[in-house]
Design goal:
Elements: E1 2-6, H1 12-23, E2 28-32, H2 41-44, E3 54-57, H3 64-70, H4 77-99, E4 106-108, H5 118-127, E5 135-140, H6 141-151, E6 154-157, E7 165-168, E8 171-174, E9 178-179, H7 182-187, E10 191-199, E11 203-212, E12 215-221, E13 244-247, H8 251-264, E14 268-276, E15 281-287, H9 293-299, H10 303-314
Length: 315
């Protein structure tokens, strides 16, 4: 049996893989994280499992389910935060208990693969021989000024993995990589929340690489040709999209990425790189549950089919 752990909303990649499973008459069961709030975990699946069963951990829940429960509680803000933390902690305990039922199964992306933070991944990438932009985490304006003086141009982006997405009047609001210009520096207070800063790499193009075990599917993104997307292709220009083409990484870079994947015990994910104007390949980050449709469709990789076949072969 194939088990797919996902969430019920905004998850097209899950549905596209399921389409291939249905097309090939492959048996599967999908379980969404939100079901833990309405069904006893013992009832979600209580049949005998074997080591031949396969689990694909795609998504689970993001805390919005807990906020819905508290939305009508009319609580003071301080109490709302404390109760949210308590309920979210309870939900995590329930989740871990449920996942333990499947501990002897084959997993494609295990939740423990999400435990690595961005700084640990960058440090491991350096140990594996990959080039990484000069990086600091700071709370001081003076430190940022000194860092920029040493690196000419610098950027800032979120420290955690995966940009926070806000929804306002049915519109998605996301965070992006931004350059720290003189104007931004003038607006900075002397002390601020811990933030990540990196040397701005002058790039020829960006590369998004999806890997499934040790097989790579790469795409070059010519984001530098557009002022809107030159720092971060995720600041999409929907009127004039970036040119995206299939790409083959040099063997030496793939070898170093395999070493990174092995060190972090990863099974699949999406890796972001930059091909610099200095001809170097710079590792930026890895997302174990990154959307792969953006790589699959422009390059005709049919990654949804690749994943479906992989899951079927592992069960």
């Amino acid at each position: 049996m194939i088990f797919i752990f996902s969430k019920s909303e905004h998850e097209p990649s899950t549905e596209h893989v399921i389409d291939w499973l249905l097309f090939q008459n492959i048996e599967f069961k999908r379980i969404n994280g939100s079901e833990l709030l309405s069904v006893d975990s013992s009832m979600l699946y209580n049949d005998t499992l074997s080591k031949n069963d396969t689990v694909w951990f795609r998504r689970w829940y993001n805390g919005g389910e807990v906020l819905k429960i508290l939305s009508d509680a009319n609580l003071e803000s301080s109490n709302l935060v404390n109760i949210y933390k308590h309920l979210f902690s309870d939900l995590n305990i329930l989740t871990n208990s449920f996942f333990r039922k499947f501990k002897h199964c084959n997993w494609l992306t295990h939740p423990k693969e999400l435990a690595y933070d961005k700084l640990e991944v960058l440090e491991t990438a350096v140990k594996c021989g990959l080039d990484v932009p000069n990086t600091i985490v700071s709370t001081s304006k003076n430190n940022v000024i000194a860092f920029r003086n040493n690196n000419d141009r610098i950027i800032t982006k979120i420290l955690s993995d995966g940009p926070p997405t806000l929804i306002h009047q049915k519109h998605f609001i996301m965070s992006y990589t931004k350059e720290i210009t003189d104007e931004v520096l003038n607006l900075l207070p002397e002390k601020f929340f811990p933030s990540l800063f990196q040397k701005l790499i002058e790039k020829e193009y960006e590369i998004r690489t999806f890997f499934l075990k040790e097989k790579f599917f790469s795409m070059a993104i010519f984001s530098q040709n557009d002022r809107q997307t030159e720092l971060d292709f995720r600041d999409y220009n929907h009127k004039k999209p970036n040119r995206n083409v299939p790409y083959k990484l040099p063997i030496c870079i793939e070898s170093k990425l395999r070493s990174l994947i092995k060190h972090l015990n990863l099974t699949t994910g999406s890796i972001d790189l930059i091909k610099g104007k200095d001809e170097k390949y710079y590792f930026l980050e890895n997302n174990p549950v990154g959307q792969f449709g953006m790589t699959s469709h422009p390059c005709n990789y049919y990654l949804e089919k690749e994943i479906a076949l992989y899951l079927n072969n592992k069960k």
